[in-house]
Task: structure prediction
Amino acid sequence: MRGYIIQGRTYDYATSRANLLKALEAYGAGELVHPWHGEVSVVVDDYRLRESMERGGLLELDIRFREAGQLVEPTASADTAQGVASAASSVRQALKDSFLSAFSPTLDEIDKVSAALNDAASLAMEYLGLPQSLIAEGLAHVQGLIATPAAFFDALTRLFGGLLGNGNKNTDASALPGTAMETPSRAVIAADSEALDRLLGGGAVIATEAERVVRDTVAQVVVVEAAASTAHTDYTTADDALTDRDAVVDGLDTIEPAAGDAVFQGLAELRRAVVTDLTTRGANLPRVRSVILPCVTPALVAAYRIHADAA
Result:
């Protein structure tokens, strides 16, 4: 736009000039009253002025405006799902250290440990509510590593981590030869607490310390991997998120008594992370509720009556 200030009889040229330049130099957006576009919020890109003192004072300005956008304050939110993944990673390492310090089967115990592993894996799949056929080939590979504890633990973690879709280098199911798995649609499918109790030795005859360590480790690994899988599960309703939260918390509470100090601390942190994550994400999701209609009603009419929105 081009504008002018001309010395007049009713106002002071110098004061008008100072007021206009002050407005042009002011920080932020201002209101421009445009002859065709009306009131517009603008910022000044730049301006040029030509000034002459002839006839008492004349100021000519060429001003380039730009329409102002809205000032949006930056927002930040905690990545609660990443907190779960990080806590699960710490627990895995603590579990491995604890396992390696406690697991040292003799040669004549290998067969018993293998049988204990097979029984423990069956109960773990019952806990998850999944058929054992999903891990049959992978389990055979894990059993072949019993004599090498570190490789055995890593393979066991990959077995259940891969089953639950935990996509990281420590739980990549593709690293297990001949393993055919499907990723379940929910983080915790059934969370059968009775099966988990039996896995931890309830009612079972455990002849050796190595068998007990294997059963406890399988229980801890499957619960930790179930907890870790919630971090990358996209829930559609708050009910699903809160159901998985409660199932994971119950599982962690069940395995904690069998854990050493370092593992116990990691499990407590994982528990806190899962509760924070699923409570936070669940709060932003729709809830499921039951409605009994008094008669046969078209779906759109029912939706409008219940939600005041037919969409």
Remarks:
- Strands lie at 2-6, 30-34, 38-52, 58-67.
- Residues 80-102 form the longest helix (23 residues).
- The chain has a mean pLDDT of 86.
